[in-house]
Specification:
Largest sheet: none
Number of domains: 1
Helix content: over 70%
Structural class: mainly alpha
Mean pLDDT: 95
Shape: globular
Low-confidence stretches: none
Number of helices: 5
Number of strands: 0
């Protein structure tokens, strides 16, 4: 039962995070490492991926596929989280320790999604 509840928490969290990419795209563009091209499209498509994979996690027929997709997504966005930690002056509203805490949080999210593979 706990596993099912946490699945819905993760799925809905991902949908909300994905929608936030469309509501506040500038925040996500600022997170992007300079070496990555096409910041705007990458933010848009990562938002789409978060919504689709979050919903997919809640559908039994697509759950395993979506869980693997979330793992790949969490790995793909790691450079943006690292960029935030390395350039805290660009994110003054977020305390520095929280910027660094986002990095191990990625591992927690990967393990969480992996529970549904």
């Amino acid at each position: 039962m706990v596993k099912d509840i946490l699945m819905y928490v993760l799925g809905l969290f991902m949908v909300a995070a994905g929608v936030n990419h469309f509501v506040h795209p500038r925040v996500y563009v600022r997170m992007m490492p300079g070496w990555l091209p096409w910041h705007g499209p990458l933010v848009f498509w990562s938002g789409v991926a978060e919504v689709v994979l979050g919903v997919g996690l809640l559908v039994p027929a697509t759950r395993v596929w979506a869980a693997w997709g979330l793992i790949a997504l969490f790995l793909a966005v790691f450079p943006a989280n690292l960029q935030m930690a390395l350039e805290p002056e660009r994110f003054r509203k977020i305390p520095r320790p929280l910027l660094w805490l986002r990095l191990p949080l990625q591992l927690v999210l990967i393990l969480w999604a992996g529970w549904y593979t």
